[in-house]
Amino acid sequence: MSSDIRFTDFKSDKQPTWCPGCGDFGTMNGMMKALAETGNDPGNTFICAGIGCSGKIGTYMHSYALHGVHGRALPVGTGVKLANPDLEVMVAGGDGDGYSIGAGHFIHAVRRNVDMTYVVMDNRIYGLTKGQAPPTSREDFETSTTPEGPKQPPVNPLALSMAAGGTFIAQSFSSDSQRHTEIVRKAIEHDGFGFVNVYSPCVTFNDVDTYDYFRDSIVDLAEEDHDPSDRDAAKEKILDADKEHQGVIYQDEDSVPYSDLHGLDENMAEIPDGAPEDAMDLVREFY
Amino acid sequence: MAEDLNWAIGGEAGDGIDSTGKIFAQALSRAGRHVFTSKDFASRIRGGYTAYKIRSSTDRVQSVVDRLDILVALTQRTIDENVEELHEDSVVIYDGERSWDAEIPEGVTGVDVPLKSLAEDAGGAIMRNVVALGAACQIADFPIENLDESLEKRFASKGEKLVENNKQAARLGQEYVEENYDDLPEYSIDTTDEDLVLLNGDEAIGMGAIAAGCRFYSGYPITPATDVMEYLTGRIDQYGGTVVQAEDELSAVNMALGAARAGARAMTATSGPGIDLMTETFGLVATSETPLVICDVMRSGPSTGMPTKQEQGDLNMALYGGHGEVPRFVVAPTTVAECFQKTVEAFNLAEKYQVPVYLVSDLAMAVTEQTFRPEEFDMDEVEIERGKVVDEDDIDQYLDEQDRFQPHYDAADGVSPRAFPGTDGGAHMSTGLEHNELGRRTEDTDERVNQVDKRNRKVETAEQEENWDYREFGDEDADTLVVSWGSNEGAMVEALDFLDDDGLDVRFISVPYIFPRPDLTEEVEAADEVIVVECNEQGQLADLLEHDTLTRLKRVNKYDGVRFKADELAGEIEAELEAEVTA
């Protein structure tokens, strides 16, 4: 790990195919900056992603990466991190990947509290399939498959995380580069599962949850007297559906990550070239 | 057959049938007697009929037979379920003081032992099964001291007092029979000095995984694969590894995939319904060229099927499951000892060729506790081959002109270099999208064809480099050839003796590799009659061999949920041969 790493070192030579103006550019830039600021380099960083516009991130960043199947990026990240705790693991996903097809994994990744970072690019639309309703869209959001709106309330990912015992719950806005970077950095530095829901507007298929909408409605917790270690205050913010909050909403400062609880501190890639020395003990157990 | 002892205990689920059976099996094993066990059980925690059966001999035993010498019956249903297996020298131990009136079949000797009362005398009614074990020792003329060690092993963690009470309970059972019955059928079973270990297929797979350097296991409990997970829990930790219980099989296989991408030897084990879910990720594992061992302990399907019953119905799924075309290896051990050896081999194959390996076992093997010589689990023989792993020192030669690492480099043998995360200069991505040598998405026609061909070339390389052999038994020059896979081997090996008694010479080939697999064309051509034996309805291995050899083959299929028994299998083979004569 060298100290002169710049965030551009995390950029690959591949130009993103995201639409011009897509929120994902800002989301990714913040991730790269936060990784550089926390002393990581491409050689020790592993990015996991699923399917959707968000899933392409592994191609545009320079690091170790796996672009997997839809909704399963969190289990992949879990395996990577537990197998080699020296790696910085960051999982990226979208609102469909994380809260629809992968919702089950999200809950359990939160509970498991593996020391990794989960960044969800929440644009409240299915962009890659050209505009259908995800679980975070509004009840009356009209799309090609929901002409009168989904008629279901949107999921509240922050509340899901809180209910599942989340130890770091945050939200940011891709356009607010400085704050977004700072929040992702805190998620990386958190001892446990650092979850950041990022408002990452889709300029092509969502004309409701736009940059203007978020700029006008976001309430930055940095400007309020919010204490992230205050669980009750955090719950109040999370359940306040009328506000779009930005900032670290909740952080358990006593969080103990899964690896520590299970005594995992070795790189599992390193094994001897034969059976373990005392392996015959395993056979003797069966006498 | 005089040296054989066929013993069983049966009752309701929750009666401690399994642990009692295992105590007796262990006692026999420690006395140097070979043991082969089987279980009749239902998928419920309490109630319903369940039985633990032991066949024991001074020679190796590999199958159950339709014969019971001593039956401990805790319920009438136990007697009724096994009435066909009882014979004129059989003894049924039952407790006449209990509320049911035992109906002992005519010609069979009933031995009424007040199991519960004697157990209470020894310290608690819960020990009534152990009283029955003591009674069985007396009837079998099996020195009760052998039982003591087994009781110590089972109850040591619960305190000296409990161990002593159990020993006393066994003695009360023994003495009761000795004092009250003097004209019983005579059994006298020998003990030997042989060192034997007693274990089942799931335990052997778990032990093989640790021996092979597996450090990461993720899984979701499912019958009959849970024993693999339970075995590894607490043991793999001693070697720097871990077991993670995932929220479902989708997660389990993806966690294992992640660990494998990080460079760990990783495995997951499940049964058919879990494989259905894992199939979603299977193509990704294969096309990202990630070494992974996926163990399928088959049970009866489809859907929930018969969860506690035997079947070998997943061969086609292992071979063809998932959309698109991508190579995978399928290895199917044929004995409990092979479960160990083939697990070690599966990890080597996975890493050398960067492929997912399906390790296919079956319920019959998973739940069978069987004795083996410890040498069959020879840890000194274990060699770990990691394939083309590159480190910082030699990574330069695998970079492209822009110094980018190429995880899917189009190598002549199809096997690309592999850089573990953390290796300087090795950063790369991989994806389930079709990709170029850099691991980046491509839809370029040439790159697509190159990558498909490259992946297939790994199979060609493996076919040349590895030994895809089979195991052979019986008469090599016989006109009749029997082929089988999986746990049928034991029953078939013993069926050869029955067939021999009836004047039939048979050559038997047991195939442990499904893909790649041995070419049996010559063997099939050399035989007049070829019969493929398997525990499924469609004859999935038979279909493959017909395809390989361009020859119609006969089939013996069993899909009633129960494994083959040696004598039954011999009869089926004879019937199949006769069917030809009369046709």
Characteristic key phrases:
heterodimer, A: 287 residues, alpha/beta, Rossmann fold, globular, B: 583 residues, Pyruvate-ferredoxin Oxidoreductase, domain 3, 4 domains, seven-stranded mixed sheet, 20% strand
In short:
Chain A has 287 residues and is an alpha/beta fold.
Your description of this structure?
The complex is a heterodimer of chains A (287) and B (583). The longest helix of chain A has 15 residues, at 23-37. Helices cover 31% and strands 16% of the residues of chain A. Chain A has one domain (7-284): 3-Layer(aba) Sandwich (Rossmann fold). In chain A, strand 5 (168-173), helix 7 and strand 6 (194-199) form a beta-alpha-beta unit. Chain A has helices at residues 23-37, 57-60, 73-83, 95-99, 103-112, 157-163, 177-189, 211-217, 231-239, 258-261, 280-284, and strands at 45-49, 64-67, 88-94, 117-122, 168-173, 194-199, 218-220, 244-251. Chain A is globular. Chain B is α/β, with parallel strands linked by helices and 583 residues long. Chain B folds into four domains: 5-194, Pyruvate-ferredoxin Oxidoreductase, domain 3; 199-381, Rossmann fold (3-Layer(aba) Sandwich); 395-465, no CATH class; 471-582, Rossmann fold (3-Layer(aba) Sandwich), CATH 3.40.50. Chain B contains 18 helices and 21 strands. The radius of gyration of chain B is 26 Å and the shape is globular. At the A-B interface, strand 1, strand 2, helix 3, helix 5 and helix 11 of A face strand 7, helix 7, strand 8, helix 9 and helix 10 of B. Strand 2 of chain A pairs parallel with strand 15 (429-431) of chain B, so a sheet runs across the interface.
CATH topology of the largest domain in chain B: Pyruvate-ferredoxin Oxidoreductase, domain 3
CATH-defined architecture of chain A:
3-Layer(aba) Sandwich
Largest sheet strand order of chain B: 9-8-10-11-13-12-19
The CATH architecture name of the largest domain in chain B reads: 3-Layer(aba) Sandwich
Ends apart, CA distance between termini of chain B: 36 Å
Low-pLDDT stretches of chain B:
none
Query: What does the average pLDDT of chain A come to?
Result: 96
Enumerate how many helices of chain B there are, as a single number.
18
CATH topology of chain A: Rossmann fold
- Ranges of chain A where pLDDT stays below 50 over 5 or more residues in a row are none
Total number of beta strands of chain B: 21
Rg from Cα of chain B: 26 Å
**What general form of chain A does the structure show?**
globular
The CATH C-level name of the largest domain in chain B is: Alpha Beta
Radius of gyration from the alpha-carbon trace of chain A, in angstroms: 20 Å
Largest sheet of chain A: 8 strands, mixed
Structural class of chain A: alpha/beta
